[in-house]
Amino acid sequence: MAKLLRLNQTAIDGFILLGFSDLCESQVLLFLSFLIIYIATITGNVLIVVTVLSQHRLHTPMYWFLSNLSFLEICYTTNIIPRMLLGFLLEKSIILFPVCMIQFYLFASLGTTECLLLVMMAYDRYLAICYPLHYAAVMTGRVCTQLAAGSWACGFLIPMITVSVVSHLTFCGPKEINHFFCDFKPLVKLSCTDSYSVETTVSILSSVVTLVPFLLILVSYTHILRAILRIPSATGRQKAFSTCSSHLIVVTTFYGTLIVMYVAPSANDSPALNKVFSLLYTTVTPMFNPIIYSLRNQEVREGVKKLLRTMVLKGSKFKITLCK
Fold first, then answer.
1. For 21, phi and psi rounded to 5 degrees?
2. How far apart (Å, rounded) are the C-alpha atoms in residues 117 and 213?
3. Which range has the worst mean pLDDT, 35-49, 80-94, 310-324?
4. For 262, phi and psi rounded to 5 degrees?
5. What letter would DSSP give residue 13?
């Protein structure tokens, strides 16, 4: 792959990310807005990860997968937003070809991993609600670790095919990418070679890594819904549904934006709409995920409060020690 990158780099050294350069008068406002979003995203997801890892009562499969998802969101936004923020400060946001390929690879890998992690979370809820008596025996700590590790491994292996076929393209100009990061469609538009086979290959891979997990999640929730409806008491049904409602909201938001982005013809034809929908799943969704889980999950909410109280107490003791 490195050889291919060097070959393409002889044709074109790098690209100019246009980002939101057409909104010249709003550059400062956009910079501050996305900086706040980035800080909020990192803070919220770090709180979730630290809360789950530091509190023993949250050491369960559901929260283990949640901490993996939050860590993924940290990586996901860090791959996109800092480069975007830099673009607001520079007259021209230039990204070298190898760096562009790395950003594209990380974007595809983390997106694939998220699809797989959401499936693992759905499977966990399926076992907990449909087979509660067998849940502890099946969903052991070792199994949870293997499922999470498998999601990360597959998530980072599958996109290698995509990056490999994209690297075979020759980019000889123009150098301007009408987007705020290196995504597949804007990159292909800059290719001066026939990209039909590449687009077909990537389309098939994208369909597999998004639609197959989505169908598995739908099947899981079909069984979950049937199991919940069989519960005799209304309180029991509400309690069962509350354990998976946060995950269901995240899945709906994540796949909703993906479907609109890659299925709606208007999103594919309009660069402006492309950017707007990309913002939804690269910046907005990662920011709201910890909020969704905190607001709808009492254990996470109490865990975060306990962590913050502990941090405040330690900070107060540290100040007192310094004063002495």
1. -65, -20
2. 9
3. 310-324
4. -105, -10
5. -
DSSP for 78-104, please give it: HHHHHHHHHHHHSSSEEEEHHHHHHHH
Q: Return phi, psi of residue 186, to 5°.
A: -65, -35
Strand, coil or helix: what is 17? Answer: strand
**What tens digit of pLDDT does each residue of 282-324 get?**
888 898 888 887 766 777 878 878 888 877 776 665 555 555 5
What pTM, to 2 d.p., does this model score? 0.88
Task: Round to whole Å and give the CA distance between 11 and 169.
Answer: 10
Q: Name the one residue in this structure whose structure tokens are 């804007």.
A: 186
What DSSP designation does 283 have? Answer: I
Joined tokens for residue 312: 């405040």
Cis ω for the linkage preceding 174 (within 30 of 0): yes
Sheet holding 14-17, edge to edge: 93-96, 14-17, 176-177
> H or E element: which one contains 96?
strand 93-96
The 3-state DSSP class for residue 221 equals: helix
- By three-state DSSP, how is residue 90 classified? coil
Query: Given a cut of 70, is residue 81 above it in pLDDT?
Result: yes
Q: What is the CA radius of gyration of the chain?
A: 22
DSSP 194: -
The single residue listed with the structure tokens 């169908």 is 215
Per DSSP, what are the bridge partners of residue 17?
Answer: 93, 177
Max Cα distance, the chain (Å): 72
Amino acid at 216: L
- Going by C-alpha positions, the residue among 111, 241, 105, 208 that lies closest to residue 162 is 105
Q: Which H or E run contains 220? A: helix 196-229
Q: Which token pair is 63?
A: 């929260």
161-195: per-residue pLDDT in tens?
999 888 888 887 678 888 899 988 888 888 887 78
CA distance linking residue 209 with residue 215, whole number of Å: 11
